[in-house]
Structures
1.
Amino acid sequence: MLELIPLLLFLAVFLVLMTGYPVAIALAGVSLLFAVGGIAAGVFIPHDLGFTPGRIFGIIGNQTLIAVPLFVFMGVVLEKTDTARNLLTSLSTRLRGLPGGLGITVVIVGALLAASTGIVGATVVAMGLMSLPSMLEDRYDPALSTGLICATGTLGQIIPPSISLVLLGDVLGNAYQQAQLSQGVFAPKTVSVGDLFAGALIPGLVLVLLYLIWVVAVALLRPQQVGRGVAPVTGQAERPSSPPILQAMIAPIVLILLVLGSIIAGIATPTEAAGVGAVGALVLAILSGKMNVQTLRAVGESTLQTTAMVFFILIGASIFSLVFRGFGGDEAIAHLFDQMPGGVWGAFAIVMLVVFLLGFILDFIEIIFVVVPIVGPVLLAMGLDPIWLGVMLALNLQTSFLTPPFGFALFYLRGVAPPSVTTMDMYKGVVPFVCLQLLLLAILCVWPALATDLPTWLREH
């Protein structure tokens, strides 16, 4: 019976989360209730709870996690200063005549925003407000339009700099050290957020290419689904106030070079690069004349809300992890994986399936903080490459934004989509793009070098 307590704890937290109770309170509250019950029954050591203040202090003082509010600030500044609107307006007028031209524009703009902001909600809402009316006016199929906008909005999950990669990098870094210590390696190697950024870069670009291929294929094979092929943002022949394409691309390209370039070149850590990116976004906003006191206040409030949410969940997840391990949950998971048919690959397949299914009902932050700390050390101790595992998990978590019924990208777009677009249209539209993401997972299983070669090369040079 004692061996079932970690499983019961996990199921209890899962059921409370399903009721819609705040995530951080659900994680900490249920865990503490189990701990109190365990102390009363004599199966939980009270001294284990004494590690809680140290864990919370470690979270607050974590240098890696400082990148989270900085990246959020950078993304919100770009959202509030019409960067996406200028890009979409400029590109759409220049891709006229290409099969699926407006769809291609949406993918390109989404990729550039992903590489300069990394915020899914802001990208989906902005693209939905700007491009969806024009796509519908230009007789694009509603399912294709909504699916494309949702899918490109989630590119910020896999293309660095990405908040999910920052969180995954921190969690997997700790898991990798635990895995090595459990094997008797007392000078453990480390895996950094920068390594994960480098590992995710090529798979992210491959996913963009898959999206572009799909849009062009639909335009050629089913032209009735893409209307005339392109439409300017206003649905008119030309927009007089459309900015020059180079001018429109300056802000995202500069930020990409500042952030990703400094990380990949080894000039700055991800946290330092996030600081440079935040300052760079603010300077570009001021130079463009889009920044004022009201905008700065809105940016600050949005950044504070998102950051507080992330750290509050992380504190709750830390308490859950502490209690879970106090009941012997990590040993139970290791024993379960050892008994699983197929060895490490069987265990990996089960974990990926569970993460994919949890993505239907849980947010990616909850999965990162609850599931990954439990299974990560065990999988890494079984010999999986930490960077490859991190990229695979990031891609898997990306599908959680698209999978009904609780895909957040669907909720974001539903809030700004016109009434003529049904929820079923959106569900149908995201199916091909979820399949493309799963196809990329299969490609990485066959060619893991897509995720591991660039970080290895950068470390050696």
Note: Residues 229-241 have pLDDT under 50 and may be disordered.
2.
Amino acid sequence: MNLARRIDLMVQLGEHLSKKDEYLDALMHRTHYNNQWFTIENQRLALNTLVSSFLKRDKIENWLNRYTIQEPISPKKVGIIMAGNIPLVGFHDLLSTFLSGHYAIMKLSDKDQYILPYFVKLLSGWDAEAKDYFQFVQHIKDFDAVIATGSNNSARYFEAYFGKFPNIIRKNRNGVAVLTGKESREELFQLGEDIFKYFGLGCRNVAKLYLPKGYEFKPLMEELHKYNSIVLNNKYKNNFDYNYSLYVLNKVPIINNGCIMLVEDTSFQSRISALHYEFYESKAEVEEQLQVHKEDIQCIIAKEESVDLPSFSFGEAQKPKLWDYADGVDTIEFLTSLN
């Protein structure tokens, strides 16, 4: 199957997903039953992102035109270990592997195991040759290269087991936001999208704020309070109550608005329902911190003039383009190097 045909199939998948599909709806309900974090609303959000940002012909062609993609004389078997922190988070690896002309051997997360096989079933139904490009397994074996996504702890095991093969091994990263205190109310509200979407479980979600010394918290907390319906989700509310109790018992100072807690902490990983913050004195200082800790940061949310580093506008953290690669590692470049 040539590249043009593979692109056609992915565009067809996008067109199909933009329409009503009762079987897909049933799979989303099954996924939610299996994993209460994956609400129907969040699964639809992930699907809509795939349709609008990943599976349009112009977007795919604009992305791939950056590379020289030659048809592999001998397609490689690429083992893909997928994360399960947010819905369909492994789709980009599947898409990249398929468009590169290699075979994807996929281990799904137990948290998100029903919808991607359905996508493959659709593709195989439209073109029987597509079936050869995808395989779902419980254990990755008989592979030529690996793309594995997990925690810092699991990454150590991945490196030990897969280190001798060509690989991309992703670890924990989080989004950060740099505020100046001059943001509008609307910008602070949009920042809430970067914090609360997918309950803050995505690697692109903002988990830490850099704030100027003397920052006035009231406008921020008032705008974030507009997302207070999030506490209607039992899992989020249980985490909020548990973490609030921990902070109180340990006498940790917090700023609390009933749906998010702000804690002064230098760590880039915050608890569910909590957000870390750290003060800075100058633009140069915060830029230095971002550079020093770039291995911990997935993306930066800020106004253009706030930092002279690649960043996303408020509300854009969970709207990556096809070339916004996880951990900054170019997946297509890696896959084409296997040819």
Note: Residues 174-301 form a domain with the Aldehyde Dehydrogenase; Chain A, domain 2 fold (CATH 3.40.309.10).
3.
Amino acid sequence: MADNKELLVERADPVAWLTINRPQQGNALNAAVLDAIVENLGALAGAGETRCVVLRGSGDRFSVGMDLRMMALMTPKDNQRLIGAGGPLRWTISAIESFPYPVIASVSGHAVGAACELAMSCDLRVGCGASCMGMPPAKLGIVYPPEGLERFIGTLGLPVTRKLFLTAKYFMGPELYNMGMLDFLVSDAELEGFTKELAHTIAQNAPQSLKGHKQALRLLTDAASLAPEAKAEIDSLVTEALHSSDATEGIASFLEKRRPSFKGE
């Protein structure tokens, strides 16, 4: 297992903690961090001793999402590769979903954009009053990839997914719990201790039962996957949006902390 300073790994059998460690950047996600999560989940699965993994951010945030400063310097094609099928974000989510044992997201503070989807791909989410989750692509002039939209609909249902993506609002702890985005809601001070207790409670269960239920639930969820032609149509919408001047304006306005001026082109 690799600890690359931007992803801290702490293993106290039978629980492993993966901590995104870019506090100066709001724990923003980049390809290196995502690759490190994939690598370490693979190593933990191979070792076969870890029965539960906790994914969290350092300091007071889970993650502010993809590193927009990095994305602002990349081409639209490269950005689509970053968050779309076959890219680092998709590989990371696949690694979380295919990890044989439960993965818990401990959501302190912000978990927005790609980080929100990262948390939603975990088997369980623990949050607190300070937890803040939302999907801001509409504020950035971006259309989110079909794999991500499909995941939100499958986990939360269409009404909540619409609320997230069409309002682009950020929602706080109690709202998130009521929307089904958090499975457990505790006080800010209890978050770490509760998550630790939950992880160890899960890890004490029968390994074959944990693996079997996780795999069975995944297969049942995947049974109604997006048709290839529908996925292709959404992919074209993603491409069109990423190449638009609105996407350039959306990312720039976010970095410059000002209201965007969208022109629909």
Note: The chain has one domain: 7-207.
4.
Amino acid sequence: MTAEEGGGGDGAARQTPDLLYDLDNGVGWITLNRPDAHNAITPDQRNALIALLERCSDDVEVRCVVLTATGKGFCTGADLRAGRDPRAPQRERTMGDVARVIRTGAQRLIAAVMDCEKPVIAAVNGTAAGLGAHLAFASDLVIAADSARFIEVFVRRGIAADAGGAYLLPRIVGLQKAKELIFFGDDVSAADAERLGLVNKVVPLAELAAAAREWAERLASGPTKALAMDKWLLNRSLDSDRRTAFDEEAWAQELVSATDDSQEGLRAFAERRATEFKGR
């Protein structure tokens, strides 16, 4: 599935060779396009993706985002070779260098997905490993091809899990199962990922684009500001005490009730007709 398959409607495609973008019927389709590298993410590609997600938040014409990829891999993590010449001398590493790279790189990308003000659907077409797996798990909804695999690959490289994995996984599958996934780094099939709650829906690869489009367009026709508040409240819920959660819920409703879509919802109910939300 490419951005062209998801696009060509009300928005001209804006794309670079390795990161495709198109806006169609309120849905921003973002496609990782390095199939020969199984869509391992380069630093430049990562930064462009972060900027694109931020732009989708700001653009009132974008009401849902689909994140997918070309080829057989969804994303096999960070491309550790990108931008490095193995012949070039390496400066001596000092304390803080690795932590700085993680904070400004992988963690920033995962945060951009979670903080995007529009619902983000990951349409996982193939292997999602390391950062790639967490890119999917940070999304609001995950649809996977039946051939997809999810791998906590870090232990195989002798490194600790990063890219938000130790934060995301316990919140999705529970602490004990998260430990199992991270400690062993085994391949998890799409079917098992669905059973564990890592994936919302599994479909044949040939049906992935259509399944993603169906959900995305449903969300794009919804009350965008209310959905943004729902996303914010849900993402905060496991980090909040009850009093804080209830206070934030009340203020979220206060803000959303002043939107045009809220007024439209009330009018449509009173007039017994279908709603026509505009995302405002």
Note: The longest strand covers residues 19-24.
